[in-house]
Amino acid sequence: xxxxxxxxxxxxxxxxxxxxxxxxxxxxxxxxxxxxxxxxxxxxxxxxxxxxxxxxxxxxxxxxxxxxxxxxxxxxxxxxxxxxxxxxxxxxxxxxxxxxxxxxxxxxxxxxxxxxxxxxxxxxxxxxxxxxxxxxxxxxxxxxxxxxxxxxxxxxxxxxxxxxxxxxxxxxxxxxxxxxxxxxxxxxxxxxxxxxxxxxx
Amino acid sequence: xxxxxxxxxxxxxxxxxxxxxxxxxxxxxxxxxxxxxxxxxxxxxxxxxxxxxxxxxxxxxxxxxxxxxxxxxxxxxxxxxxxxxxxxxxxxxxxxxxxxxxxxxxxxxxxxxxxxxxxxxxxxxxxxxxxxxxxxxxxxxxxxxxxxxxxxxxxxxxxxxxxxxxxxxxxxxxxxxxxxxxxxxxxxxxxxxxxxxxxxxxxxxxxx
Lengths: 201, 208
Description:
heterodimer, A: 1% strand, B: alpha+beta, 9 helices, 5 strands, elongated
């Protein structure tokens, strides 16, 4: 493995990424390469955390960027920020993989897993890590949730765990975990939507 | 879609983006998203809400061979599919005869996976199913979703036991509308349905 792990990265300027995506849509390969250089570490970090096998994360990253190359023309800056758009592509690919029968036959390499350094997802781990300005509201709203709800949502988001897996991790009944996640998302939505309205008025 | 209330759509979209929708529900939801603007909009809204969480993950620089492979693929026509690429194509192309056969059987069962999520979201945490909701305003119609494990025979037997006939459905997420031969039996039917292992959703319909 020739990759390196860094611990912090400043927020990526959206205007630069939007420009690179626009040029990518015009089949500017240099712009696409620059986009890859800037965005791939973020996406690779997310993918490794989700699929937990580097070789698989590399393949999915490859698929993501081929998809970004092919679909950059459909990106709309008025609807979402570039990293949100690209991260959603990456997460969806990883989640589809995790939910597939293909994944069930994957043989996990313990050594690789140990390399991953998956941080815990306690509420404290969330604090102070949301670096981007637009994540401030999310941090506030997550912090307002019950601790169990935070943990369940974080486990599902970061590690791609399904309900059964979250329940096993939390040592809580499946129905209880489902309820925590459902109610947690409802509260999160109400809180975030309320903050948006407050900012607009 | 016509059966999908906005709040339910929002719940499903949140679960889709978070990744907790069961696998078949996830695939179906992804397909519906392509043709239903309301679903796409709800998913998009949840992506905006949750994706900033990803900024907390430490970046990891990928090895150089990944970019080389990407560059090779965008410069070649047609692109060479990797193992995962082939898998993705297989996942979303359900056109083989075997799959159509399975699909036909699945239609008979029609417990489509999204319904599992619907039920899980709608049922309270410690529901006993002993007390059906009031059905005073119903007109003898029920909204039903069958479990994935229910066979066609199971469904027929079940409907016969409550005097029900399917009058509509399955909707795009597997919801049937069932008319009862005797509208006065709505509460009794609901009580039986709530306890039934082959039913994942049962609701009275006010305006069929």
